[in-house]
Write a structure and sequence with these properties.
Blueprint lengths: L6 H16 L6 E2 H8 L13 H13 L3 E4 L8 E4 L13 H13 L4 H7 L9 H13 L6 E3 L11 E3 L12 H4 L6 H29 L1
Antiparallel strand pairs: 1-3, 2-3, 4-5
Length: 217
Amino acid sequence: MDINFTPYEARIIGCLIEKEITTPDQYPLSLNALVNACNQKSNREPVLSLDEATVQEALDGLIKKHMATDRTGYGGRVLKYKHRFCNVEFGPLQFTDQELGIICVMLLRGPRTPGELRTQTNRLCRFSDVHEVEAVLQQLMARKDGPFVVQLPREPGKRESRYAHLLSGEVEVPAIPETMQATPALSQSNHERINQLEQQVQTLQQEIDELKELVLS
């Protein structure tokens, strides 16, 4: 795998993949639509405030890397953009719907746990449970043309490890302070209650994000 996106390029590719799946009638995207997608306040971490010049510069870099194309002819005179990152005709890089959903969320939101990925990919693909997410993550780590994701060390007090994409180079793993390393483990019952609460919060946040998108669209 010879892909190394800058942070802005990763955001743009993530946005193009997301909009291609969720709003195909509005894809490819104009520069203005892409700027809005990059700066979207829902389903983005971190939230950015990019101007058109910055997005255009990153787009030019992606076009030079043959990861995006720009052209007219999509029903109007406005120049529009689409990705060539994967799943394109004659392209060597092909992902399943589930693999692409995971990568898209990571490009837009950074490292995620399997539980977060199950919730946050629900507009992109479908997972029956967290175990299915974990199986697809293992596929992405074991692919011969990859790896595309890496498992990060589990943080103290956390039930799940996070996973990060490798499309912007190696991931730096932050050091865990000694005081945190000494934190006693939670009981199994506490783990279960915390996990239930986290899932409820993730579901509620996703519903809020979808309502915000409907209002802003």
